[in-house]
Amino acid sequence: MMETDRRAPDIRMQNLRGPRVLRHAAVLVIVALAAGCAQRESTIPAGTAQPDKFLFDRGNEELKEENWLKAREYFRQIVDNYPQSPLRPDAKLGIGDTYLGENTTEALVLAANEFREFLTFYPTNARADYAQYKLAMSHYKQMRAPERDQSETKEAIKEFEVFFERYPNSALTPEVKKLWREARDRLSEASYRVGLFYYRSRWYPGAIDRFREVLKEDPGYTRRDAVYYYLADSLARTDKKAEAIPYFERLLKEFEQSEFRADAQKRLEELKAQ
Q: CA–CA separation, 155 vs 43, rounded Å?
């Protein structure tokens, strides 16, 4: 009886492990089948005169169809098996684009790695500006809401600014400027919201410091009309009326359609009357 009891836990553990082993095996089988299918689909037909071009064209076709895994398999074959191919740099970019297309956190990290490697291996390539742009995008796509951590926003801004420095004449510049502005606005919005919290909590010295910081760090912030208004009002409420007036005036001068315009006009008239 004692011997049976000692063996019983072992039997139970075997019964528990059984389903886990089966599930693990099933996953391995699925992965193996998927890999086999991908390999078969990317097989180069016998007698192909330019196998690297065949792979590249097929990769681009799959990329357009957003079949990220299939496209990556074609591009990967060029990078791994055709080191002398003139299409190898573009295939490297193609791999990065497939990861960007997947748009998961893990894929975006892998995308950044691909574009960084491209810039290391092909710094003078005609498409180096594209690689730098996409490197910035791998961080841009990971930007979080203004009230959350802004590490990825800062990384995106840094990489966009590297683009401006290295490729000032790039045809991609207008698009990059637009995205850089969005990233800068996200970072400034985060600081602005902190200042607004201080303002609503009636801690005006803290609000003044934060609003001034936004204007100093990002004078082109899209929503600076709000910063002007709350900064001016904070100054006025701390007996710094002379300092408040110019910010109300800047709001009225720079923003004809601002939601703060009517209140700013009223407050300005009150301060000047005093």
A: 39
